[in-house]
Amino acid sequence: MMDTRPPLAAARDAISAARRIVIFTGAGMSAESGVPTFRDALTGLWARFSAEALATPEAFARDPELVWGWYEWRRARVRAAQPNAGHRAIAEFAARRAAEGSGGVTVVTQNVDDLHERAGGPAAVHLHGSLFAPRCGACGAPGAFATVEPVEPEGGRRLAPPRCEQCGGALRPGVVWFGEGLPEAAWSAASQAMDSCDLVLCVGTSALVYPAAALPEQALRAGATLLQVNPGHTAFDALARFNLKGSAATVLPALLCGNH
Fold first, then answer.
1. Per-residue pLDDT tens over the stretch 157-174
2. Paired residues of 22 in beta bridges
3. How many angstroms separate the CA atoms of 250 and 245, rounded?
4. Active-site annotation holder among 87, 116, 126, 128
5. DSSP state of 126
6. Is 87 designated active site?
7. How many helices (H) and strands (E) does the chain have?
8. Are 76 and 153 in contact (CB under 8 A)?
9. What is the distance between the alpha carbons of residues 212 and 221, in angstroms, rounded to a whole number?
10. Number of neighbours of residue 245 by Cβ within 10 angstroms
11. Of 100, 111, 123, 197, whose CA is between 20 and 30 Å from 47?
């Protein structure tokens, strides 16, 4: 029998029927909060560089002050941003499911910001690391930022990395650079969640960045339903059972919380 329900209502029913849900988010979700993406043009000191040229181990080895300064500039932009209605809808949805005992929600993100956590949601699995978890580039020990956050100039600046308290080496950003593998613990947690979920909700991801983009495909092979929220076309269009075209901040409150 043909399903004549509106797509939003049908998608809601699929979510209600699922016991284990993975919400998989990409750069488009954070962009709605004003966080620059790698596709955005760089400004100020960074205008002469491409993001790809700054986000490599080789760039950090060659000029650590330049690379650390860029990441502190990026972190300042995230600190100034606020979780949007999409982040808050995910947090509310996960809290409600936990309170009702109606099933688990795992958030897996490609984003390196802390907006999911600041919205009150469950700690996300950060596939590409975090701007807020520096580590030593020499011994790998976790690092920490200064208690008092510096005020970063609008145009950015060169900045010497802090030193490791364990070995004295230079701290590096706790993100995955081009040419590096994804963190084993995060990949394992995400992979297990995809293998065991009933439904995966993909939000604001282009589905072009691998190996992360292979995870929803893995869930599909394991029998999960794929639901996508994105304002544009993506590589998941042909795979998703439900394609809800729109921004995360607009669609997710209606989809997850029944807000209109």
1. 999 999 999 999 999 999
2. 106, 200
3. 10
4. 128
5. E
6. no
7. 10, 8
8. no
9. 15
10. 13
11. 111
**DSSP three-state, residue 220:** helix
Pick from 23, 30, 9: which is nearest to 228 by CA? 23
Paired tokens of 119: 């919205």
- CB atoms closer than 10 angstroms to residue 206: 18
* Tokens 């004549």 sit on residue: 4
Burial level of 39, CB count in 10 A (0-12/13-18/19+)?
A: exposed
pLDDT tens, residue by residue, 240-257? 999 999 999 999 999 999
Residue 213: both structure tokens together: 């983009």
In sequence order, the 6+-apart residues with CB closer than 8 A to the CB of 82 are 33, 115, 118
- Nearest Cα to Cα of residue 169 among 131, 143, 132, 148: 143
Stated pTM of the model: 0.92
CB 139 within 8 A of CB 164: yes
Q: Residue 94's closest CA among 22, 32, 160?
A: 22
